[in-house]
């Protein structure tokens, strides 16, 4: 049995017909072709599927899609700012914080939620925020380095924005998103 759900994803209202049992992750990937959120374990263990619901990280593989109705969904595709990478994406690139990249979208979303609440997290704060995000490749050090640096960049932004050029308005998808797997 299918049902129609109306979702707000990365600021856009989307109406989609999905099987009633679909999770949010299945809806994103298979009904909406938003494949940035990864399907790793598919049972709530790895964090690869992390998205934000009303600013809070959730595991979309164990979140029924109906729980996302009426809430703001942010996926990695919506993280980049108009015309530029999000500072977290830029820092992951500069610090070599992604290797295979499979964990990266989930890491970015957990980190984005952290930095929205804590502008100057300690390394332990960052470790705690990433506790549900597993990485098989990096050993985590580069990821923590990158998030620390992104926090520094974000703290410096208000001053920079006052002097800087006006924002570019062309939308972009997140280049840090790994290819469809
Ligand atoms: S795919 Fe959701 S926690 Fe692993
Ligand atoms: S970069 Fe490969 S799992 Fe994290």
Question: What does this entry look like structurally?
Answer:
This protein has helices at residues 24-31, 87-95, 104-117, 123-129, 141-163; strands at 2-9, 12-19, 50-53, 56-59, 72-74. It has two domains: 2-78, Ubiquitin-like (UB roll) (Roll), CATH 3.10.20; 87-162, Orthogonal Bundle (DNA polymerase, domain 1). The protein has 181 residues and is of the alpha+beta class. Strands 2-1-5-3-4 form a five-stranded mixed beta sheet, sandwiched between helices. α2 (87-95) crosses α5 (141-163). Mean pLDDT is 90; it is low at 160-181. It is 34% helix and 15% strand. The protein is globular and about 45 Å long. The longest helix is centred in the C-terminal third of the chain and has 23 residues, at 141-163. It starts with a strand and ends in an 18-residue tail after the last helix. The chain contains five helices and five strands; from the N terminus they run ββαβββαααα. The site of one FE2/S2 (inorganic) cluster has 10 residues, from loops.
Q: How many H/I helical runs?
A: 5
Fraction of residues in helices? 25-40%
Category from helices, strands and their pairing: alpha+beta
Number of domains: 2
User: CATH superfamily membership of the largest domain, which one?
Assistant: Beta-grasp domain
The name of the CATH architecture of the largest domain is Roll
CATH topology group of the largest domain: Ubiquitin-like (UB roll)
């Amino acid at each position: 049995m299918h049902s129609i759900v109306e979702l707000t994803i990365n600021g856009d209202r989307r109406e989609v017909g999905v099987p009633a049992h679909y999770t949010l992750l299945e809806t994103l990937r298979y009904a909406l072709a938003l494949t940035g959120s990864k399907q790793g374990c598919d049972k709530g263990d790895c964090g690869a599927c992390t998205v934000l619901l009303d600013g809070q990280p959730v595991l979309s593989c164990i979140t029924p899609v109906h729980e996302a109705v009426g809430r703001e969904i942010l996926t990695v595709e919506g993280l980049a700012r108009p015309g530029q990478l999000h500072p977290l994406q830029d820092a992951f690139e500069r610090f070599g914080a992604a290797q295979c990249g499979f964990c990266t979208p989930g890491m970015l979303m957990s980190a984005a939620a952290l930095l929205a609440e804590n502008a100057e997290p300690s390394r332990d704060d960052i470790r705690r925020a990433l506790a549900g995000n597993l990485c098989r490749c990096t050993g985590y050090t580069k990821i923590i380095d990158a998030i620390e640096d992104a926090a520094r960049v974000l703290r410096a932004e208000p001053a920079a924005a006052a002097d800087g050029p006006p924002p570019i308005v062309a939308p972009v998808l997140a280049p840090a998103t790994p290819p469809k797997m």
